[in-house]
Specification:
Blueprint (H helix, E strand, L loop, with lengths): L1 E5 L9 E7 L6 E2 L4 E6 L4 E5 L4 E6 L6 E3 L3 E6 L20 H5 L5 H10 L17 H9 L1 H9 L23 H16 L2 E9 L1 H18 L6 H14 L6 E3 L2 E3 L6 E3 L1 E3 L2 E3 L2 E2 L7 H17 L4 H4 L4 E5 L18 E5 L3 E7 L2 E15 L5 H16 L2 H5 L2
Parallel strand pairs: 12-16, 16-17
Antiparallel strand pairs: 1-8, 2-4, 2-7, 3-6, 4-5, 6-8, 9-19, 10-11, 12-15, 13-14, 17-19, 18-19
Helix pairs in contact: 2-3, 7-8, 7-10
Length: 399
């Protein structure tokens, strides 16, 4: 008796996905609710859990295939199965390995090394996610004394594929559905919006001092670290209230103004950046904002981000500074009309009261749709954010 595994509902208006990766092989033991495959939609990667415990049976689609909601992608056979045994760290060479390699999830670079050295991939212990083989695993196996001797003594009747002795290697990897969607939407934004970027810099002295003074008490009380995003999100919400066109969007021949701020924030995930939404951020405290961002970060790392988490959004904050970016021109995420780019904090000489002093400075970049937002409004918005960060008391007394 077998149980069908179907593609789950993927979210509003999402009818299909790409089968990104099989996480189980036929014959593997599977626990109830254990992920057996990952699907990639336009916005997020979703793991498909097994509805029952049993043994992984037939897989109806290959990796990279497009599958619709409700489609049967696999079968779980009755039985307890046998957990995958731990394989030896030292591999032994075999004459032909195509059949073995075909049953495993191997990247092109790993497959090339396996073929080059005539190894059996099922005998190499993988250190990657879910036990997957990495290039380092294969190279370590090759360098093992027993394997090195065996490879040297392997019969020459079936030579390994010739690999040019050159560092000019290439690897072709199919774009994920998420990356394809990001590429298409970014290009659409450039083609549709009259996009312009204005810059300013902000002295981070006061907000750094406030964070240093209260971070321990803040974490003890709220159970989350006090970062800079809470301050910037509050400052943005105040500026959006004063300059409502930055929080608006164009729909046909109408401008839609909003009295709420749903702030999209870029969060790093294993498959790239995702942009969940802090809803009604204008009503949240700094602690509430930091908790929400922390929850999103945990979900992104665990791969449990949902479509609802990322739906909507009226304005985006992108923090390239965490990766070391000094300055950038962020691209608008339609139908939004503006995005604020944050960058790394760097000590620079500035003039204060006629004296040259060193201050921790950050460049701010606001990209906006000039069809809707005038230059004066964009600059006024950016200055309002700058003033609130340079004097955090403004955030408390609503100035």
């Amino acid at each position: 008796m077998s149980t069908e595994v179907k593609v789950p509902t993927l979210g509003e208006s999402i009818a299909e996905a790409t089968l990104g990766q099989w996480l189980k092989k036929p014959g593997d033991a599977v626990a109830m609710d254990e992920p057996i495959a990952s699907l990639e939609t336009d916005k997020v990667a979703i793991e498909v859990p097994s509805p029952v415990a049993g043994i992984m049976g037939a897989q109806m689609f290959a990796e990279g295939a497009t599958v619709g909601v409700g489609a049967v992608i696999a079968a779980i056979e009755a039985g307890s199965g046998a957990p995958s045994a731990t394989v030896p760290a030292v591999a032994t060479p075999v004459p032909v390995i195509e059949a073995d390699a075909g049953d495993l999830t191997l990247s092109p670079s790993v497959r090339r090394l396996i073929l080059e050295h005539g190894l059996d991939p099922s005998k190499i212990k993988g250190s990657g996610k879910d036990g997957r083989l990495t290039k380092e695993d294969v190279l370590a196996a090759v360098s093992a004394p027993a394997v090195a001797a065996a490879v040297a003594a392997a019969p020459a009747a079936i030579p390994a594929p010739t690999v040019p002795n050159s560092d000019r290697g290439e690897e072709r990897v199919r774009m994920t559905r998420l990356r394809q969607t990001v590429a298409r939407r970014l290009k659409e934004a450039q083609n549709t919006a009259a996009m312009l970027t204005t810059f300013n810099d902000v002295d981070m002295t006061e907000v750094i001092a406030a964070r240093t003074k209260y971070k321990d008490l803040f974490e003890k009380k709220h159970g989350v670290r006090l970062g800079f995003m809470g301050f910037f999100t509050k400052a943005v919400c105040m500026a959006l209230r004063d300059i409502p066109s930055v929080n608006a969007s164009i729909e046909g021949e109408e401008i839609v103004y909003r009295n709420y701020a749903d702030i999209s924030v870029a969060v790093s995930a294993p498959n790239g950046l995702v942009v969940p939404v802090i809803r009604d951020a204008q009503d949240m405290s700094v602690a509430g904002i930091e908790k929400t961002i922390g929850d999103f970060g945990a979900k992104a790392k665990a791969g449990t981000m949902t479509m609802d988490d990322m739906k909507g959004g009226t304005f985006t904050i992108s923090n390239g500074g965490v990766f070391g970016s000094l300055m950038s021109t962020p691209i608008i995420n339609p139908p939004q009309s503006a995005v604020l780019g944050l960058h790394r904090i760097e000590d620079r000489p500035v003039v204060r009261d006629g004296q040259v002093v060193v201050r921790p400075m950050m460049y701010l970049a606001l990209s906006y749709d000039h069809r809707l937002i005038d230059g004066r409004e964009a600059v006024t918005f950016l200055v309002a954010v700058k003033n609130a960060i340079e004097d955090p008391t403004r955030l408390l007394i609503d100035l």
